[in-house]
Predict the structure.
Amino acid sequence: MKKLLILMPALSRGGGERVISELSRGFSEYIDIVIAVFERKRSYSYAGRIIDLQVPLSSRFLDRAFLFFKRLARLRGLLAQEKPDVVMSLGASANLMSIFAAKNPIVRVDMFISAGRKGFFGLVFRLLAKLLFRRAGLVVAVSRAIAQDLEKHYRVPRTKLQTIYNPVDMTAAREKAEEGIPEEYREAFSHPVVITMGRLTKQKGQWHLIRAFSAVKSHIPDAELVILGEGELQEKLEHLAKDLGLGGSAHFLGWQENPFAYLARARLFVLSSLWEGLPDVLLEAMACGLPIVSTDCRSGPREILAPVTEPLFQTKNVEQGKYGILLPVCDGRWREHSESLTAEEYVMADAIVGLLRDEAALAEFKEKSARRAADFDITTIVPQWSFLWKQ
């Protein structure tokens, strides 16, 4: 049996990490798996052996370059020891490391680089991607929009590009959806719940949803907002909700090991992201039959909700896709409670109110969500990776 080494920062509490968890279990029947991580943080199960490079991530500016080269040296030693047949990487620094250290690695890109890599280190990464990504054996993009961006802006030849969507385990999701939730949260879910899920970071733009929800409450007083996830903006978001008078109606439930139990009890899922790759949270919500309202950010929501349209198109108005509602992307600027809602926030509020009041539309999108999620089932996605063990 061939050996696959997967390089990634950790197996903890992220969409990409969840994907690798599911893929590793799907791959294990066909190929021997070794997962090399920067630090041994784990929130998900996995198949194969895990090897800790013992060089954790750091937010300190001066540490980042030093730690990168320290990890690179340890990776080269690990490759010499393990002698894998195939190397696959996930994450910005892991992708660069695999290109430097391995022969013809498979680089998995799960972010729309032109929109999602910001600041000084984002600029450095974009320059390095333009210079190095074409040296990979294969670049796997998680959306067609990412593949187009890589070809156009990062000099990756079309012959080295392949799009493989992220999977969702439909059977497991539906089983977990049947589990109960703690009694302390049941009262909130006895009302119409608008739910969102993701790290509480700038990328996810949850403050736009909180501000929009303040307008929703004026039309549907018993509506509740549930936010699953944790991150550096949590305190600011909680203060914003309180200042907007939503203290009793905005529920921050943190990271949940089984989010499906909460998703299945909600009325509507809203994604307010400013940028994405392919948002796994949409697939997880749709696996539970949740109707979807999402910003038309680059990339992923359009390919999930309106798959026959041009991947790089972005709507300026409310668009009813085949499988959900697409909205204009908000501007990403933080605003206090005293500032008026933006045009995009009003559009988001109107779309939420419109769906919550339309039981027929909710029922229609509920059925369509479950049907569309089946296209991303793990049993459909794993065979698309068969080149790992057949090459």
The chain has two domains: 3-164, 170-376. The mean pLDDT is 92.
